[in-house]
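Recall the central idea of this unit: under ordinary conditions, the amino acid sequence of a chain determines the structure it adopts. In this exercise we apply that idea directly, starting from the sequence alone.
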Amino acid sequence: MPSEDRLILLDEEVRIEPDPDSPEMFCAWRTNRRKRIRLTPAKAYLAENMRRPYSDVVLIAKCNARFSDKHTLGDLQELIEDLDEAEMMTGRTRESGTSHKTNLVPASEPPGTPRRFRNHWSLMKPQRFLDFLLPAVGWMRYLKVLVPLAFVLAVFGFVNNLDMFFMDIASIKNRVSFFGRLVFTFFTISLATQLHRGLTARYFGFETPSFGVMLVFGLLPRFNMRVTVPEDAKRKARLWTLGVPLYVRFIMFPLGIVVWLSSRGQGNFVSHIGAGVAMLSLISFLFVANPLLGGAGYRFLSELFAVQNLRKKAFLRLKSIFGGQPQVIKQYMDPSPAALYYGLASIGFTLALAGFIGFGAARWLEMNYQGLGVTFFISCWLMFLSV
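Accordingly, the structure predicted from this sequence is:
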């Protein structure tokens, strides 16, 4: 006979209350357990509504309408798995009228089966390799006290040799194609960042289920290390893990300057490698650290100042002003002017950056293809606006 269809519900003993350490978050915990799980307001809403029989599709629709989010059934599945792992869920017979069955892991799925990740092509499970490598390089963490001094010295050497530096950068641009520079970035800064991120995660005991490749803006390939950070992880561990993209570039810039200055007089290509690493590290740091772009800098500052989902709140606030929002959603919006100012600054910077890139692309096409290049650029821009 087929197994009885069961629905996993939140246990009646589980409490969901505001997180005292982060006012914008919630905590789920059992009265007889020390285990706590941090939840966003939307996830807290989903969890509360799983105390009684429900339909997965209907629950997700209600949540998205209430918080103006784009949660999927996969997000609900992950929430159920996290709560179930913390022993906060219980199985009950599914009642009629709740016909959708996607919130249970199939019984035929073997334990330890990795989850599917969006925008991530998995190449390997890196955890064993990272655990093997960590004892050999773990001592290097004590050198972090020297990083600020090395950075200051590198800036001093960089500023005092600007003419030589940009002359070498121009030489690199003439000798190495755009594709070559892209590959160089892929196997230096991107690889170093994700390897360091994985080692940092394993040092703090976080799971690293997958190492692979992702596409930034759906176009540029970058290495990507998937890290599972528990909701109850210590703040120090979360900050170090989130800050790795900034920290690595902070290290690689002085490293590149030292290699460039020490090998420039030898007449080999090593000095060009050092100059390239320094230049790319500096440029990418300015983008990665910019909190207006929603990257590593934004996530690090959000954790540092305990301000969660600032971008989402800011854009919801702008949408309510210019596009209108139902009253049921407005009551959950952040009324502070900081969210509004951040949203305006973020949109303004993004538009300015897009305009700068578009202007540069138009100039390049005009210089290389004259009128045909301009026509091509205008056609592409009109197609973009019509999408």
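Strands lie at 6-10, 14-18, 26-30, 36-39, 89-93, 121-124, 207-216, 220-228.
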